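lol so apparently i was supposed to do this last week
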Amino acid sequence: MYNYPQKLQKLINEISKLPGIGPKMAERVSIHILKKDVEYIDNFKEILEEIKTLGFCTICFNVSEGPVCDICADDGRDKSIICVVESSEDVITIERTGKFRGYYHILQGLVNPLNNVLPENLRIAELIKRIGKDPVKELILALNHTVEGDATSMFISAMLHDDDNNVITTRLAKGLPMGSDIRYADEITLGQAILERKQV
Ligand SMILES: [Zn+2]
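anyway here it is w/ zinc ion bound
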């Protein structure tokens, strides 16, 4: 049976490991890269090399060039509110709405026992520690209205109720399409969901 040359097959295999890219798309992307000139490939290689120097903020776990991200380093934001999100993509989405001026905490995932993601695999312990230290009054759980998002929200709320603190927890209003990702919501709908958040 005919197959691709091994070098190309290796590229296809790597690309198909990326989220949301199936085998057919991986073949298309790989052949597209193959058709590009040497300069493009060198540039691509350099960008991948540079990304190795990026890491995560030691406070909120957002992607960051240094130990503290630009948002945590900004003293002008509202220290009484932390917005809890699944990933750094959500930070960008929420920032674009212009409706939030507090700080963030990135969980780096959602509770999903079927995929072996348990609360201890997320940045929840670090979040609870931050609440004990910062003048935080409200935690916005800006997590998707999905089974995983709901399970994660319930877990965090329960932990906060057990803890002796005066922090209230809120969730985004359900104007967002059920079961959908907040990162795909339009800015106006998401901005409105932030303003109309409900206490849980
Ligand atoms: Zn940060």
